[in-house]
Amino acid sequence: MATMATSDNRGLLPAGLRDVLAPDAAHEAAIVERLLDSFARWGYRRVKPPLVEFEASLLEGAGAAMAGETFRLMDPVSQAMMGVRADMTLQIARIAASRLAAEARPLRLSYAGDVLRVRGTQLRPERQFVQVGGELIGAAGPAADTEVILMAVRALRGIGLDRLSVDLTFPTLIATLSRFLGIAGDREAAMRAALDSKDRQALAAALGGDAESRAIFLALLDATGPAGPGLALLEATGMPAEARADVDHLADVAARLGAAAPDLALTVDPVEYRGFEYHTGIGFTVYRNGSRGEIGAGGRYLAGSGFADRAIEPATGFTLFLDTVIRGLPAPQEPSRLFAPCGTPPDTVDALRREGRTVVAGLEPAGDVDAEARRLGCDAVLEDGAPRAVSPGGPAADAPE
Predict the structure, then answer these.
(1) Beta bridge pairs of residue 297
(2) N or C: which end of the chain has fewer CB within 10 A?
(3) Which residues span the domain enclosing 370?
């Protein structure tokens, strides 16, 4: 009978997935806790939704925007389809509308956990990554939007990230203007493609002889950049009342941020809407100069759907992407490890651990204690009740006799 050959690819993982090893795993967990602790000081209480939910609730309402990114599987118990969460924001909205429907508003919640997506992007090829964030549910004004942006920025600065900038957008603005100006169908598709690529000539061609539309949408392109001049240009552009309200809201949030954090770089991008598929108002993205990809993103949306007295309520929040956050921080260092040779009294080892030392206890007698300590990655040895540095050694010193 032939035996099956052992595969050499047992350690191979699907594209976009990876093992997180020491010391990175401990570093990641510590960063998560520091961020959540920062949110807690703003009054945000932590909740923990499940990794998998019924598809009917996970992809309901605004969640439909994440349908293309969601892994699906059959629940063998209920025979109903389930989805693996691709984003945690909408789970928090579900919790607020159901489990916490009777809680006073505005409701402040925080969370952390892994998400899994069907595919990565060019800037974020990872398909599984950790999200950490906060949601402010039941508040509609610019003060709420300002709070979540400031909280995100200050939490990031608190863990050592500098050179941060925030890009503000209003992802529904293009749809509002298109509706008012009667732009639809192939014409709207061509216009959106031109706006995506920031192509002025293609935009003018898509809008043809419509001078009013050309003036408005070209102004949107010209406004992209630093918030001060960009917002001034938008405010000087003739827009319908509904779109004007969007611009005024954006300007209000920018002014509040400028007053609270004058050293924070602010930009505006009025034509950006990708990545904000379920958002219904102001959106924002946090970047760090020198880091690949966005540090975090968030904005305004409608929370709840079909839940008794709180069917729909205004909400705003943000998600930080921990993989990008960690790339902007110094590489973690392994803590000092102390080797306690076999036979060391347990009380001695316990006392050292209570003091905060990392102690690796020997399980069997070792002829060369220093060689054993080096083999186990320890830089100190417990000798006569006190730590001492491990003596240097090399391949010859550590070779068996």
Answers:
(1) 285, 319
(2) N
(3) 337-398
* Shared-domain flag, residues 227 and 365: no
Rounded distance between C-alpha atoms, residue 263 and residue 378, angstroms: 44
What does residue 117 show for φ and ψ, rounded to 5 degrees?
Answer: -120, 155
Cα separation, 152 vs 316, whole angstroms: 12
> Among 359, 319, 382, which residue's Cα sits nearest to residue 130?
319
Can you tell me which residue has the tokens 């209570």? 354
8 Å CB contact between 135 and 112: no
Is the domain of 181 the same as that of 98? no
Taking only the tens of pLDDT, the chain with its 401 residues reads 444 455 567 788 998 899 999 999 999 999 999 999 999 999 999 999 999 999 988 887 777 878 888 999 999 999 999 999 999 988 998 899 889 999 999 999 999 999 999 988 777 788 999 999 999 999 999 999 999 999 999 999 999 999 999 999 998 898 899 999 999 999 999 999 998 888 999 998 998 878 888 889 999 999 999 999 999 999 998 888 888 999 999 999 999 999 999 999 999 999 887 777 778 899 999 999 988 889 999 999 888 654 444 468 999 999 999 999 999 999 998 889 999 999 999 999 999 999 999 999 999 999 999 999 999 999 999 999 899 999 987 544 444 44
- Nearest CA-CA partner of 34 in 260, 357, 320, 297: 320
Q: At what angle do helices 24-40 and 142-158 cross, to 10 degrees?
A: 140
In which residue are the tokens 């191979």 written? 12
Would you say residue 228 lies in a domain?
yes
283 shares its domain with 151: yes
Q: How distant is the alpha carbon of residue 2 from its chain centre?
A: 49
Measured between alpha carbons, how far is 8 from 148 in angstroms, rounded to an integer? Answer: 48
Calpha distance 376→73 (Å, rounded): 42
87 & 56 share domain = yes
Single pTM value for the model: 0.88
What CATH number is given to the structural domain containing 330? 3.30.930.10
Residue 161's CB is within 10 A of a number of other CB atoms, namely: 20
Domain-located, residue 226: yes
Quick one: 311 and 285 in the same domain? yes
